[in-house]
Design brief:
MST-like, DinB family protein, 6 helices, DinB/YfiT-like, two-stranded antiparallel sheet, mainly alpha, 53% helix, Four Helix Bundle (Hemerythrin (Met), subunit A)
Length: 184
């Protein structure tokens, strides 16, 4: 097991004063949804901190192929798909990790190498940055082009909160199986 850092509040993932997630109360639809999305984005990254490439690439709940590294790659692909392809209307843009050919490529093609880890986190950071810039320049009722028809930005943002929330739950279980670490 990986040694956990000593914390003032040992039952918490990080001490509250070190938590990068905002604890501010938000008002209004936009700030509320974006606040939750930001917190979940940061939570996924936090759940991966302090692990080796081998641990990040370990499917710790067999027979599932879910790994923490796969979740990072998956969310980079989801960010790219919704914000570059759908909302920015570039459906022709190739999907990250060859998902058009292999639906599970973000999970099945992980390698326990630092290069794979670095690429995955760089892709996630790049796609989140693009999404944040795109959202900042648009209104919640702006429309994107989905293969099933137009979709409002507010619907995409709520979907992203749901997607991250589900996968952060997976990350909790994967991390606990890897080194026993649990927390907020």
């Amino acid at each position: 097991m990986t040694e956990q850092p000593e914390r003032k509040e040992p039952d918490m993932w990080v001490d509250p004063e070190d938590d990068p997630r905002s604890q501010e109360v938000t008002r209004g639809e936009r700030d509320t949804v974006l606040g939750y999305l930001d917190a979940y984005r940061k939570t996924l990254v936090m759940k991966c901190e302090g692990l080796t490439p081998e641990q990040l690439a370990t499917a710790s709940v067999p027979p599932s192929n879910l790994t923490l590294l796969g979740l990072v790659r998956h969310m980079a692909a989801v960010e790219q798909s919704w914000f570059r392809r759908v909302m920015d209307r570039h459906l022709e843009l190739p999907r990250l990790y060859g998902k058009a050919q292999d639906r599970d490529a973000d999970f099945t093609q992980v390698e326990p190498t630092q290069e794979c880890v670095d690429e995955a986190f760089a892709s996630l950071a790049r796609e989140v940055s693009y999404a944040e810039d795109w959202v900042a320049a648009h209104d919640l009722d702006d429309l994107g082009e989905h293969p099933d028809g137009e979709i409002e930005l507010r619907d995409v943002l709520v979907h992203m909160v749901e997607e991250y929330a589900r996968h952060c739950g997976h990350a909790d279980l994967l991390r606990e199986c890897l080194d026993g670490r649990t927390g907020q």
